[in-house]
Amino acid sequence: MKLTSTFRSYGQNETLISSIRNIIKDYPFESIFKEFLQNADDAGAKRFHVIIDGRSHPTKSLLYGGMKAWQGPAILIFNDARFEESDFDSLMRIRVGGKQDDDTKIGKHGLGFNSCYHFTDFPSFISGDSIAFLDPQEKFLPKKNDLPQRGIIGPFPRNGIRNFSERDQFIPYKDIEGIDFQSTFNGTLFRIPLRQQPSEISDRIFSVNEVQDLFMEIKSNVTSQFLFLRNIEKIEVSSISDATSSCQTDSLWKATINGLDESTRSKRKYIVNGDVRIFQMEIELIDNSNTVQNDQWIIVTGAQPNPEDSELQKYAKQYRLRVLGGVAALLKSKSKSKEPDNLFQNLIFPNYPPIIVNNNQENEELSDFEGRLFSTFSLPDTTCLSVHLNGTWAQGSDRARLLIEKDNDLPDMDHQKLNWNRHILLEFLPDLHCKLLEEIIKLQNLKKIDFKNCISKFWPFPLSTRNHPKYVFSYGCKVLQCILQSETIFRSINSGDHFYQHSQKVYFSDEDNHVDILFKCLSIDNIKDFYQLLRNNCNEIAFLEKLIKSMICKLPIWPVRLNPSMENQSLIYAPVSVGKVLPKEYNMYKTKGEKIFLKNTDKIDIKILRDLDATWCGIHDYAFNDVELPEKSDQQYVDFLDSVLDHAISGFRYVYGHGHGYGNECKIIKDLKKFNFPFPNAFTDDLMPISKLFDYDNMVFRTVFGRDSNVFLHFKLAKHKDKLSNIGFNNKLSSEAFDKCAKKIEAFQEINPPPDIRHRGFVLVDHFYEDVKKYELEKFDRIPFVPIAKFLGKPYDKYYDHSEVLDCFNNIVHPKYKGVAWSQKALIAEDVIPPLNALEIYPSLGKPNDIMVIKHLKFLRNKIINDDEWKNNWKETFVSNIFEVYDWLEGKCSNEKLMLREYIKENEPLFLNLGKSQDPFDTENWVSASNLVLNVEPGENKYINPRLAKYYEMLKSAGVKEVKTPNVKIHVREHDQPSIIKKVLLEILSNQMSSLHDIVFNVNGEEIWASRIVLAASSEFFHQKFTPGEEYANSNQVTINIDDDVSPTSIRILLHYLYGQNIDNAIWKHQNTTNQTSNFEIYRELLVLANNYELDHLKELMELKFSRIVNRSNVNDILNLAKYLNASQLEEYCNRYIEDNENLEYS
Fold first, then answer.
1. How far is the C-alpha of 898 from the C-alpha of 903, rounded, in Å?
2. Per the domain annotation, does 194 fall within a domain?
3. Where are the beta strands (DSSP E) in 589-698?
4. pLDDT band at residue 654, thresholds of 50, 70 and 90?
5. Domains in the chain: how many in total?
6. Cβ distance 787 to 758 under 8 Å?
7. Does residue 863 contact residue 826 with C-beta atoms inside 8 Å?
8. Are 955 and 934 in contact (CB under 8 A)?
9. Domain of 1028: which CATH number?
């Protein structure tokens, strides 16, 4: 058994139904009209008639019993051309049309017939001697050889159908367009029964009324459907009412080409490569309301060999495409009806430029004409041009999707379509468009058309207000390029017939070139609209060819910025090529000579000008090379400076980011100074250097110069004060600005000083103190702007006379130095006394110099000494002044080595050496340096009073001599007398046999000797006892018996303590310190002795020592002892000890 015997059929398959469904998805249902019309034109038909048959026909005698579906209401489509044999075959090839190999046919895909399946499931047709019925669902036609049939075709009866057994099947065709079933039918009639219920092909069901409405809508643009057809001369749509049994038709509308001669027919039908055909057609449209519309069109068609590009050649060959197309313009349209008022209603149609009625008229009403792309018939693509464009576009099978806009994301196949279509649009049609315009201008010159300005009317660009595709702008540029190269056009233009009077609003050169001539034919509104169109297409400019860009640059379409220097102040538009671009942020001013600057209102303008390689003018070049500086200020100049300063930081580069940076802040700001740019002030039209202008907002400047002074920078420029400060503007009180303020106050004092000049000085000085660190005092310390004290009060006013109100810092005295200089200089006013922070930086501020103080001393000695008022009332003040001066001079001589002898003569009596009279006004008390000697004793000659003598350095500096002490050193050995005495006394105490003892302590029979002098000196108790009349007053030996229970050791310790030995050393020397029991006894005995002999210090020492040995076993004993001996501190300590430890047991 062979393996192949087990195989079965297998493979991909697409049913007829699914194929039809997929095809009609690409066709809108209204396309049925165009598709059948195109097929008719390709077949050479001249008439095309659509009949909407609302009748339902008999179903008794049919070819087959199941063919009732073919008998209902239908769309009948007639053309007067018969099918060729090949046409019958091609109609049945669902995916491959019969015109695939014929590039003279309009429709090459052969799929248009399938558009009928939007409406029907059972189409049929008659052509010549044949009739065909189609049933793609294979439901209603009888089977053949047990196989379903998709359609049947055969000859129709030739002897009429009256007695024909299947007559009902043919009744729907009877008498339609002369069908009599007795002779060959010289035409083709399609019958498309309307679908009555949803089917596998489509769910869409159309009523007769819907179909009728559809074909009535087609009427609106039917005249344009003739434009690029080759054969059709008449199109009609009729209807047959469902209420009649006859085939009487009622015309809904019909369109006819009138007066078509054979020459025009030939131009329509045949196009040869390289040939351009221009012809006119008048198309008449009559509708069922008896309205007649007549449209006159002019059409240019042409063909070219395939493009030189190899890829495009390959694509054209593969898809049998030719470079073929045309351009059509509506020259005239009028309508008439039975209504008298509308007998001739002219429709002003072109969508672009307005028509001029006379030279003073700029605008006319525009029609609703809307240019479209055509592929024989109009496509959905609206161009908004004043013409229709036809081409052999690379389309999809639906003939609707047209790729022209650039798109890098397209697949390769679509890129091929795109490149082909753009070739047709941009390389082929523009020349035809130009030829069309040449012919229209010729017709206008011959007065065969009634246009005032056909160039304006048929301008190859859409209105900027229309929503046009991007490619239309590129197309218009190509057409404009062709126009400018057409000598024919410019020979035809006559200034009187075509030119507008622009009244110098548009820039034209003196050359009278093609651009100038052409644009004189456009209105201002045309030019304005072209500029706006350029803005609308700003993203396309960069991709235009270099020559196109160059052309646009030469067109006088760009708005001009008003330049005050221009003679022609009416100029509105100029070419980009003759102007410069100054950023809109910069205000303009008068320039040196007449120059044109272009407007750039926003980023769109900037982008376009950038893409057109316009000449950029940076603010630096404009300001320093172009602007003419004024002699007086005006608002335009202020605005200009404001804009320059506004953008001095970022510059042009920052704003537009295109590398056109012209300088930066440093360059612009510095050059304003370098080129001596004058600046306006706030209150007059005077101009002055920036270094002479001040900030009005600064209170100090405003006070010093006066609120209405002409030294303040114009208010509008004040916001730039930080920048201007770099070139000398006084926006802050710098040291230089302060100096200017001080000098201004000085100048005010020369003639008619303002009444508030003292206040101005106050404000300036006060600010100096506030920010004293940043100023250099030496730069202005000799300028008189500092307020001085007007009065000093009594007794000074008699000699303090200063008529001026201001003085300089180096010529006035701080009030604290009043006493040493008030007669020589004015004092600083109380309100502007230098604060501490100022004096820390300038310690000499307001400080008199040495010569000033010496002069003041001489003034006091020579002038005041003779003043009776001072003598009688101000003696103390006078003396105080004198000694203040001496204090000053003493400090100077001591610290700064002032040499007074250089300023005071040796015999000059300037030193007040008060003697017996103590009168400072007594001239005898005033002596010279030669009459004084330092260090002499009272009573000696030239003795110096101690009050004066303390000014040693001053006197020495003045030349006063002194008694000198010999330089002999007397040595004194080291000697500690108290230690020696204590040591000797203890030695005497230790020597009990010393004859110096005169007191004996008898302690239990043991004698211990001591001295009464030492005891009296050490103890108030013994001192009292040894006083005459007291117990131990006996001058002889005295014995003191110790009756208490006191040991000799304790007496010895007591005596050593009284003789000056430290108590601890005394106890240590006489008792073993490690024996705490014996220490207890010694402490007790010493406490008893201290109590008996009233030795409070010793008593306190023993209280302290007892507190250190208190414990639970002895606290009660010590407490009792303390109470007995009145040791209050020890008693308190023991009580507190017991309280704090009350939870413990005590023995």
1. 10
2. yes
3. 597-598, 615-616, 679-680, 687-688
4. very low
5. 4
6. yes
7. no
8. yes
9. 3.30.710.10
The pLDDT of 103-114, averaged and rounded, is 58
Q: Which of 917, 934, 963 is the last residue of a domain?
A: 963
Cα 1113 from chain centroid (whole Å): 94
- Domain assignment present for 885: yes
Residues 1132 and 991 in one domain: yes
Contact 298, 329 (CB under 8 A): yes
Asked if 189 and 126 count as a contact pair (C-beta separation under 8 A), the reply is yes
Say how far apart CA 377 and CA 37 lie, in whole Å: 9
Tokens 């039908």 belong to which residue? 269
Residue 100 shares a structural domain with residue 154: yes
User: Can you tell me the distance from the alpha carbon of 13 to that of 481, in angstroms, rounded to the nearest whole number?
Assistant: 54
**CA-only gyration radius of the chain, Å:** 66
Confirm if 523 and 456 have CB atoms less than 8 A apart. Answer: yes
Over residues 849-859, the pLDDT tens digits come to 999 999 999 99
Pair (39, 179) in one structural domain: yes
Pairing of strands 1038-1042, 388-391: unpaired
pLDDT at 572: 87
In a domain, 391, yes or no: yes
Per DSSP, 98 falls in state: T
Average pLDDT, the chain: 85
Handedness of CA 644, 646, 651, 656 (dihedral sign): negative
Query: How far apart, in Å, do the first and last CA atoms of the chain sit?
Result: 137
186-203 confidence digits (pLDDT tens): 999 999 999 999 999 999
Nearest to 526 by CA among 496, 498, 547, 551: 498
CB 274 within 8 A of CB 303: yes
Residue 351 pLDDT exceeds 60: no
C-alpha distances in angstroms, 954 versus 182, 679, 876, 951?
161, 61, 22, 5
Are 73 and 208 within 8 A, CB to CB?
Answer: yes
580-581 β-sheet, strand order: 573-574, 558-561, 597-598, 580-581, 615-616
Say if CB 500 and CB 522 are below 8 A apart.
Answer: yes
C-alpha pair distances (Å), 1060 with each of 394, 791, 982, 1103: 137, 71, 6, 20
- Please identify, among 493, 522, 551, the residue that sits at the C-terminal boundary of a domain: 522
CB 426 within 8 A of CB 404: no
Asked whether residue 700 is domain-assigned, the answer is no
Instruction: Name the residue among 402, 396, 410 with its Cα closest to residue 23.
Output: 396
Query: 455: closest CA among 424, 494, 485?
Result: 494
Cα–Cα separations (whole angstroms), residue 1003 to 200, 278, 713: 155, 169, 112
Query: Residue 810 to residues 671, 734, 800, 813, 1140: CA-CA distances in angstroms?
Result: 39, 20, 18, 8, 79
The beta strand positions in 503-625, using DSSP E, are 558-561, 573-574, 580-581, 597-598, 615-616
Which ranges in 458-577 belong to alpha helices (H)? 470-484, 487-492, 495-498, 514-519, 524-536, 538-541, 546-553
Dihedral (Cα; 1021, 1024, 1026, 1029), 10-degree rounding: -140
Q: Which of 995, 1022, 1032, 989 is nearest to 1008 (CA)?
A: 989
Cβ proximity of 910 and 928 under 8 Å: yes
Q: Rounded CA gap, 607 and 587, in Å? A: 20
Give Cα 604 to chain centroid, integer Å.
18
Domain, as residue range, for 135: 16-219
Q: How far apart are CA 976 and CA 442, in angstroms?
A: 146
* Residue found under tokens 């089917």: 199
pTM more than 0.85:
no
Instruction: Look at residue 863 and give its three-state secondary structure.
Output: coil
CA angle 466, 468, 523 (to 5 degrees): 50
Q: What is the pLDDT of residue 346?
A: 40
